[in-house]
Amino acid sequence: MTDADASADLGSTIGALTLAFLLVTVVAGTLLGFNWTQAVLLGGFAAVTAVVSAWVTARRADGD
Fold first, then answer.
1. Which domain of life does the UniProt lineage start with (predicted)?
2. pTM of the model
3. Contacts of 37 (CB under 8 A, 6+ apart)
């Protein structure tokens, strides 16, 4: 893996983390009626799940 690949992977990881956290937190807090503490916890769980999923998918694509 080159430095460019590593930075692209890091950028994708941060993007997936941020997008999943914000989307799930806002939906849970506004549309589903959770209080904001619960919404943030759900958003954090969703973000971690998105990053792990992206990591596993990338490893499978590389053939590891």
1. Archaea
2. 0.76
3. none
